[in-house]
Amino acid sequence: MGDTESGSSGAVDFVPRNQRQKLDVFNDVLYRLKESNDEEASRLGFEDELWAHFCRFPTRYAMDVIAERAEDVIMHKRLLQMAHNPATRPAIEVRLVQVPFQSDGHPGDSVDSELQLQYFDYLGKHSIHPPPAFGSLSDSEPLHKYQDKDITVITGPLCFRLVHEITISTIDKPKLLSQLTSILSEIGLNIQEAHAFSTIDGYSLVVFVVDNMALEDTERLRSMVFKEIPKIECCAEGDADSK
Fold first, then answer.
1. Domains, in order of start, for the chain
2. Of 2, 65, 74, 68, which is closest to residue 32 (Cα–Cα)?
3. CA 59 to chain CA centroid, nearest Å
4. Residue 87 carries which DSSP code?
5. Is the pLDDT of residue 65 over 80?
6. Which pLDDT value is given to residue 167?
7. Which of 63, 116, 127, 191 is surrounded by the fewest CB atoms within 10 Å?
8. pTM, to two decimals
């Protein structure tokens, strides 16, 4: 299909608008990866693989992903590759991300001082965390609903807190998003955002931003999710493996 032509061979003048948008984001991500001396980006054939990755998704994926976080695209590509292998499916990545919120002009009023100290202590021992890969939580718009949450860092009127981002790649199936949402809720997580993308070859990439889990429990959270997903995986295995 026309949507799978190699982006590295150069864009033609007359292409659909959505294809042009996808190509622009692809070129931006590729440029950033090369500028950062990403090892994979220098590998022979990588450009075609990256373009094929974008072409597996609807244009919405290219529009929603943050090009400045080009390494997130690499992570999504890796998880999808893992999802093809029953031995490494479902492919799950759990990480801490930093999301903004803005108080009513008094950023310190609603923040417990002990929690502030805990947060600064944590940041002092760990590297700065990225924003979420998708969604409104990755920008700097005011998020008043986060005023009363547990962890914040004060930087003037705009404040930040750490939450977990869970990225899952597995076989696509009807109601997958709602089933994964139920699993995370049963674990006890508060879901702040959810984004789901289906590929043209029968796989899904689902990204959740969640809280209500201790910051240091990232690996435990991954294990909990990995343990629960097979409950919905079993009924999709036969369909995908027979393709």
1. 2-64 (no CATH), 86-241 (3.30.70.260)
2. 68
3. 16
4. G
5. yes
6. 98
7. 127
8. 0.74
